[in-house]
Design goal:
The structure is a single chain. By secondary structure, the chain is α/β, with parallel strands linked by helices. It has one domain: Rossmann fold. The protein is about 35% helix and about 20% strand. It has seven helices and ten strands. The strands form two sheets. The protein has an eight-stranded mixed β-sheet with strand order 3-2-1-4-5-6-9-10, sandwiched between helices. Strands 7-8 form a two-stranded antiparallel ribbon. Helix 3 runs parallel beside helix 4. The two termini are about 25 Å apart. Bound molecules: NADP nicotinamide-adenine-dinucleotide phosphate (NAP). NADP nicotinamide-adenine-dinucleotide phosphate binds next to helix 1 and helix 3.
């Protein structure tokens, strides 16, 4: 797929590397494309990356993501928009960041994704031989399907957690992940265990 990633930081860089390695056409959007370099990946203006992506990932600080999404406006309409953002140490308001992003771009199909693991494992999420689960939450089945497919391509076991209201749980889970790293380091990941027959 043509994947547009907005943000050249830890998450943007890791997802760009992992999705490009999986065969996707990745373009990364920056406020200042000339000053950022991501190996083997084109870096362009944020608006251009959003326009070129069939699916767009908002790899941005949580406190700006809704405003940036609103500014990208029409470029996101009708597309799966994946939100990996987290507020830490606490949620800043009612509901999840993902629901606030969805309110800012009502014509986009927002999916909470890639927020419950560290950027250090995002492009290679196999821990001690087992793939990490990647929990996904969204209201649009096709958009969630795109997120599942990209998560699988990166090496995750995708797990649909529910509609977008479940993003609240995933954002709490991410805060728990961050707290766990203090004693257990960053090479840790969540995995849903289940009997094959019920999966
Ligand atoms: N780091 C992790 O392990 C991890 C894991 C899971 C989820 N998350 C979440 O994912 C999000 C991104 O995390 P990160 O670690 O990649 O952050 P980061 O390294 O700070 O990168 C965020 C990027 O967003 C862009 N940006 C910053 N301020 C902006 C603004 N005011 N307007 C528009 N763009 C702006 C910048 O790219 P340009 O300068 O190129 O524009 C920056 O590189 C955060 O919400 C974080 O909580 C992080």
């Amino acid at each position: 797929m043509d994947v547009g990633i907005i943000g050249t930081g830890n998450v943007g860089g890791a997802l760009a590397n992992g999705l490009a390695a999986a065969g996707h056409d990745v373009v990364v959007g920056s406020r200042d494309p000339d000053s950022h370099h991501i190996e083997d990946t084109e870096v362009v203006a944020q608006q251009a990356a959003a326009e070129r992506g069939e699916v767009v990932v908002l790899a941005l600080p949580a406190d700006v993501v809704s405003d940036v999404a609103a500014d990208l406006g029409d470029a996101l309409a009708g597309k799966p928009v994946l939100d990996p953002t987290n507020e830490y140490p606490t949620a800043s308001g009612d509901g999840s960041v993902a629901e606030r992003v969805a309110a800012a771009v009502p014509d986009a199909h927002v999916v909470k994704a890639f927020n419950t693991i560290g950027a250090n494992l995002m492009a290679d999420p196999v821990v001690d031989g087992d793939p990490a689960s990647m929990f996904l939450a969204g209201d649009d089945g096709d958009a969630v399907g795109v997120a599942e497919s990209l998560a699988s391509d990166l090496g995750f076991e995708p797990v649909v957690a529910g509609d977008l209201s479940a993003a609240t749980h995933l954002e709490h889970l991410a805060r728990f992940w961050i707290d766990l790293t203090q004693d257990h380091g960053r090479d840790i990941a969540f995995r849903l265990l289940r009997e094959e027959a019920t999966s």
